[in-house]
């Protein structure tokens, strides 16, 4: 069996890669570089001359060969490698007639606990959206409690409004539902420490990306000063960064993404490193159905999985069957590969849309955090 062709498909701001073989088997993957998705397609194109004609089952070697081909790093390269890797594992599963998790060592669980991503534009919206998610069966929810226009606010108001949203959610969902708090890198280390201390009474599951991902040491400094578990990593590009993150005790939960962190090949390794530090894995899963299906496979195959974030999108019609939510969980499928196929007609209904850059500004005109 040989790789015959590789194509990239842009669906809105999602980047899909489909690999076909000379035996008729094909696999699909998704890259998670939504900021400049077209850049990922260019990198995939540059990898084609090497991949065409290769055995699709020597997956780890292909990753190593391409990753080491230039020694450049970055999100477009990582996303391209990741999407190709997932597509090759999808082919491998179909070739052997087994789900990917079986090829990764077998499944640890029969169903995947989902964490509903809920809007929190206002205190009222935060409470109502999370209460609705719990009514649907979710036992975990995640909000971004930072108020709109946060970069223009005084620190006192920023803290007050952020805490008010978390407090409203705790009141709305009761004492037994887990609450993830996503900061989206919007705070300085000092602000993050202050906020984490204020959130301690609400028993939150984790505080995600409290500061910019520029420095692992800065994240470690924040983590050392708070009791709330820190979750981070979705902006990383390789397992090597996760190793340093965990060595410095900068996080208790890592945000692996098979669409950015090297596909199944590297994410299984990174999850193993996290396991050695007794850290959990809650994958970053905010894109399309291909990424969702792939993450279900990864979550089934690792012992230290915590929750998988989840939010439906109208573009999910591009693939089937979609992993279906029931009582806050998704059942692990038995289908070969990652368990779904693309619908080309549906893909055509969602053309590429270039992202508009909108970086927040502070009240004095300086650039804020995003």
Structure notes:
There is one protein chain. With 370 residues, the protein is an alpha/beta fold. The protein folds into two domains: 3-98, 2-Layer Sandwich (Enolase-like, domain 1), CATH 3.30.390.10; 102-338, TIM Barrel (Alpha-Beta Barrel), CATH 3.20.20.120. The protein contains twelve helices and 15 strands. It has helices at 37-51, 59-67, 75-96, 100-103, 123-135, 155-173, 189-199, 216-224, 239-247, 263-276, 289-301, 344-348, and strands spanning 3-11, 14-21, 26-31, 111-118, 140-143, 178-182, 206-208, 230-232, 253-254, 280-281, 308-310, 319-320, 325-326, 329-331, 341-342. Strands 4, 5, 6, 7, 8, 9, 10, 11, 13 and 14 form a ten-stranded mixed sheet that branches. Strands 1-2-3 form a three-stranded antiparallel sheet. Helix 1 (37-51) packs across helix 3 and helix 6 (155-173) runs parallel beside helix 7. The longest helix has 22 residues, at 75-96. The N and C termini lie far apart (45 Å).
């Amino acid at each position: 069996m040989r790789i015959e062709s590789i194509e990239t498909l842009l669906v809105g701001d999602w980047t899909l890669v489909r690999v076909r073989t000379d035996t008729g088997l094909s696999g699909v993957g998704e890259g998670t570089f939504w900021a400049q998705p077209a850049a990922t397609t260019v990198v995939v194109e540059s990898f084609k001359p090497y991949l065409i004609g290769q055995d699709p089952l020597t997956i780890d070697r292909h990753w190593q060969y391409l990753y080491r081909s230039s020694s450049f790093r970055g999100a477009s390269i990582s996303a391209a490698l990741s999407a190709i890797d997932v597509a090759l594992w999808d082919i491998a599963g179909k070739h052997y007639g087994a789900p990917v998790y079986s090829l990764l060592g077998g499944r640890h669980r029969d169903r995947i606990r989902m964490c509903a991503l809920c809007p929190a534009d206002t205190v009222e919206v935060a409470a109502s959206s999370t209460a609705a998610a719990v009514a649907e069966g979710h036992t975990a929810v995640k909000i971004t409690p930072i108020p709109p226009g946060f970069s223009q606010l005084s620190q006192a108001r920023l803290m007050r409004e952020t805490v008010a949203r978390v407090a409203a959610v705790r009141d709305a969902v009761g004492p037994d539902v887990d609450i993830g708090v996503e900061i989206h890198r919007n705070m300085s280390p000092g602000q993050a420490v202050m906020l984490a201390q204020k959130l301690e009474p609400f028993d939150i599951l984790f505080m995600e990306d409290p500061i910019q991902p520029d420095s692992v040491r800065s994240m470690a400094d924040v983590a050392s000063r708070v009791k709330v578990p820190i979750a981070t990593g979705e902006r990383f590009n390789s397992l090597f960064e996760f190793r340093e993150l965990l060595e410095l005790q900068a996080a208790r939960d890592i945000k692996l993404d098979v669409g950015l962190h090297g596909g199944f090949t590297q994410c299984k390794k990174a999850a193993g490193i996290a396991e050695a530090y007794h850290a959990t894995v809650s994958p970053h899963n905010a894109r399309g159905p291909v990424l969702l299906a792939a993450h279900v496979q990864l979550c089934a195959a690792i012992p230290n999985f915590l929750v998988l974030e989840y939010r439906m999108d109208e573009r999910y019609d591009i693939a089937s069957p979609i992993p279906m939510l029931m009582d806050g969980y998704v059942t692990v499928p038995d289908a070969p590969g990652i368990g779904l196929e693309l619908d080309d007609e549906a893909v055509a209904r969602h053309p590429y849309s270039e992202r508009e850059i909108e970086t927040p500004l502070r009240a004095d005109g300086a650039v804020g955090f995003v």
